[in-house]
Specification:
With about 170 residues, this protein is an alpha/beta fold. Helix content is about 40%, strand content about 20%. The longest helix is centred in the middle third of the chain and has 18 residues, at about 90-105.
């Protein structure tokens, strides 16, 4: 399983995988951070398709075409805003990953890349978010041999180091 998971310090919009995951807001109409970068790179067609989806609830996921991205698909998921941990944030973040893997499986996606969902302006503690992301990814890979590659695409050093440390523990 270790060979199927990697961490890279990379711009997720440049990855040649079947699907990239967008840490979206509930409108799905673009925003800041990775969401804005994905919308800018994909082009206006992505926004047009997102307008037809009726938004997305926290913990759920929806899929669109990738348009001008190297990835064929974009899976949009809405992570929880961190409010101190007493509002089911951990469960909702886990549900984001479960929803993404479920959609990926139903869509025949074999390689996908995730950003650090909820770790930016949504304020989720990085170490806790990384643990949830890795746990849910490991579970998805155990239950579905069709997933060949999962990349954790990291923008900053702190997130990259947290993922690298967690994945190094898998190898021990």
């Amino acid at each position: 399983m270790n060979s199927r998971i990697s961490v890279q310090k990379v711009d997720i919009t440049k990855l040649r995988v079947d699907a990239i995951v967008n840490a979206a807001n509930s409108s799905l109409l673009g925003g800041g951070g990775v969401d804005g970068a994905i919308h800018r790179s994909a082009g206006p067609e992505l926004l047009e398709e997102c307008r037809t989806l009726g938004g997305c609830k926290t913990g759920e996921a929806k899929i669109t075409r990738g348009y001008r991205l190297p990835a064929k698909w974009v899976i949009h998921t809405v992570g929880p805003i961190w409010r101190g941990g007493g509002n089911q944030e951990h469960l909702l973040l886990a549900k984001c990953y479960q929803s993404c893997f479920d959609l990926a499986s139903k869509s025949g996606i074999r390689s996908l890349a995730f950003p650090a969902i909820s770790c930016g302006v949504y304020g989720f503690p990085i170490e806790e978010a990384v643990e949830i992301a890795c746990r849910e990814t490991e579970a998805a890979l155990r239950s579905n041999e069709d997933f060949q590659t999962v990349i954790f695409a990291c923008f900053g050093d702190e997130v990259f180091s947290a993922y690298q440390s967690r994945l190094d523990r898998l190898k021990e």
